[in-house]
Specification:
Blueprint lengths: L4 H4 L21 H7 L2 H8 L18 E5 L5 E4 L3 E2 L7 E2 L8 E6 L6 E6 L5 E6 L9 E4 L4 E5 L4
């Protein structure tokens, strides 16, 4: 078994997630998303796109706050879990709650990766890798276009 194979195992730390007590998934027509998202946000979150490295608005942001899903507003990551991975995308070692994320095997572009999506609305966020720092060893590599930042103390 090589390093990628453990992602495909049903007991993998990466693909295991908590069950939400209230499953409130949003089911919305694509026209709605096209109206309320920028073209780049739509391409990334609804068409599984990726922004170029070192171009997103949050890859180098060091403010304190919460990163939310740009589509539905669910809390995804806290700035305390953000770290500089050198990848050019915002990177986090853990989500606010694993219940807010879903993971899926992604076999596009001739690779096997683990895609991360918003549990609530299904937005494509990025990918998770097992090369992150302690305490989890995970690196959630997330597109800035999939996030909305809310600083501490903002209403």
């Amino acid at each position: 078994m090589d390093g990628r194979d453990k992602y495909l195992q049903p007991n993998s730390v990466v693909i295991r997630r908590e069950k939400r007590s209230l499953d409130r998934k949003i089911k919305t027509k694509e026209d709605y998303w096209k109206e309320c998202l920028t073209p780049e946000e739509y391409r990334v979150t609804r068409e599984n796109g990726t922004e170029p490295a070192f171009t997103g608005r949050y890859w180098n942001l060091h403010d304190q706050g919460t990163y939310k899903c740009v589509c539905c507003g669910d809390d995804l990551f806290d700035s305390n879990a953000k770290f500089d991975s050198g990848s050019g995308w915002p990177s986090f070692y853990e989500p606010v709650s694993e219940a807010n994320l879903e993971t899926n095997v992604d076999r596009t572009f001739g690779m096997v990766r683990v895609e991360v999506t918003c549990h609530n609305c299904g937005a494509h966020l990025g990918h998770v890798f097992e090369d992150g720092p302690e305490p989890t060893g995970l690196r959630y590599c997330i597109n800035s276009a999939a996030l909305k930042f809310k600083g501490r103390g903002e209403q």
